[in-house]
Amino acid sequence: MNNSVLEFITKRRSIRRFTGAPVKQEKLATILQAAMAAPSANNSQPWHFLVVTEKEKVIALCQAHPYASFGVDTGAVIIPFGKKDGYRWFDQDMAAATENLLLAVANLGLGATWCGMKDAYQSAIRVLVGLPEELYAFALIPVGVPAEEKSARTQYDESKIHWERY
């Protein structure tokens, strides 16, 4: 087995404590390139990404989401969004892009946590970033310089693997 592949993937951990330092724009660009390298059904690429680095808006966004208040000390918030209505594979495509984004964050020495969005959270987020009603915010992802360190881990469980048939 190639340990470098596992090392790359297992670095990704949910980080919820940050230094408050800004995130360099070149790192944000790399993160977004990784996100857009994700597969999508029929190569539809339904994703768009809203990047917020203005400190007051970062704080407001993290306070508007009921599970993102830990992110007030991040340097950025990334919101993957797109047109969900009428596109059958929206959730799968957006999840693939979001996981690529999170892997890039971890491997650039940054931290993040994927905060899922549901209909009830949409309006508060839309107002803060001017997102039109027809577009759906898939996640709110605070990204920053970590103030905590978590060791790499796998949650490998051989009992959940079935070879050839159940």
Question: What is the total tally of β strands?
Answer: 6
Low-confidence stretches: none
Structurally, the number of domains stands at: 1
CATH level 1 class label: Alpha Beta
Largest sheet: 6 strands, antiparallel
Query: Span between N and C termini?
Result: 25 Å
Q: Tell me the name of the CATH homologous superfamily.
A: NADH Oxidase
Principal-axes geometry comes out as globular
Order of helices and strands: HHEHEHEEHEE
If you average the pLDDT, what whole number results?
A: 96
Keywords, please?
166 residues, alpha+beta, NADH Oxidase, six-stranded antiparallel beta sheet
Care to describe what's here?
It is a single chain. This protein is of the alpha+beta class and 166 residues long. It has a single domain (10-146), classed as NADH Oxidase. It has 5 helices and 6 strands; from the N terminus they run ααβαβαββαββ. Strands 1, 2, 3, 4, 5 and 6 form a 6-stranded antiparallel sheet that branches. Helix 2 packs across helix 4 (90-107) and helix 3 (55-64) packs antiparallel against helix 5 (119-129). The model has no long low-confidence stretch (mean pLDDT 96).
